[in-house]
Amino acid sequence: MSERMQKNLESKRALRSRHAALPFAEKLVMLEKLRVRSLAIAASPLRRRVAK
Amino acid sequence: MKDTFAIINQMQADGVIGRYAIGGAVGATFYLEPSATLDIDIFVSLQNFSGSKLVSLSPIYDYLTARGCRLDKEYIGIAGWPVQFLPPGDALDEEALLQAVATEVDGIKVWVMTAEHLVAIALRTGRAKDFIRILQFIESGSLHSGKLDDVLTRHGLLAKWESFGDKFLGDKP
């Protein structure tokens, strides 16, 4: 694995750890945002066109 | 989601449901980084007034629809979130419900399954997304190995756990 890729993975792992350490209430707010985005993606006409 | 929990707590205070525990992706979010989910899984013990052994979710649905919540297949929309109420299906679910830990969301008390029970239930369910969640738990270091071992042993999941380890970890987890 290249050094650059190694750094990317470490950075992602650190970000995930920081998110995991947030208070539950803050993480639930993030879940709300993720849900809104998931629904928007699911409703996208572009996505439906690709699905055909 | 805070409003969703407030309504569920009120339903509990009104005696419609007994103990409850948040499971699934929302429960896992208590321990892990948030990952997208479209619904909330609530494991719930029901008051059985009829003396029947059959479990009915009707009291929950009646209570919530009378308060403006809408049914959609197996979900009921509460304060904008589809919620699935799951009565315990086996001893593992019962135990997860009994041992759920209390926490607070902006001053609202809620109960969340332990990390070990969430993993055991994910292992039993066995979909791809469940395996991903188990891997997240392992990587996060939030599991207590002794407790997990006890839960898996008590509920006959050790063989599945070893198979999971062989498949995804290349060794016993």
Number of helices of chain B: 8
Structural class of chain B: alpha+beta
Cα-based radius of gyration of chain A, to the nearest Å: 16 Å
Please report the distance between the alpha carbons of the first and last residues of chain B. Answer: 34 Å
Can you write the helix and strand succession of chain A as a string?
HHH
Total beta-strand segments of chain A: 0
Count of β-strands of chain B? 7
Whole-angstrom Rg of chain B? 17 Å
Return residue spans of chain B where pLDDT drops below 50 for at least 5 consecutive residues.
none
- The order of strands across the largest sheet of chain B is 1-2-5-4-3
- Give the % helix of chain A: over 70%
Q: For the largest interface in this structure, which chains are involved and how many residues does each contribute?
A: A-B, 17 and 23 residues
Tally of separate helices of chain A: 3
H/E topology pattern of chain B: HEHEHEEEHEEHHHH
User: Are there runs of chain A of 5+ residues with pLDDT below 50, and where?
Assistant: none
Shape of chain A: flat
| Helical fraction of chain B | 40-55%
| Termini Cα gap of chain A | 37 Å
Notes on the protein architecture:
With 52 residues, chain A is mainly α. Chain A is 87% helix and 0% strand. Chain A is built from three helices and no strands. The radius of gyration of chain A is 16 Å and the shape is flat. Chain B has helices at residues 2-13, 24-29, 58-65, 91-98, 115-125, 128-140, 145-154, 158-168; strands at residues 17-23, 40-46, 70-72, 75-78, 81-86, 101-105, 108-112. In chain B, strands 1-2-5-4-3 form a five-stranded mixed beta sheet, with helices on both faces. In chain B, strands 6-7 form a two-stranded antiparallel sheet. Chains A and B meet through helix 1 and helix 2 of A and helix 2 and strand 6 of B.
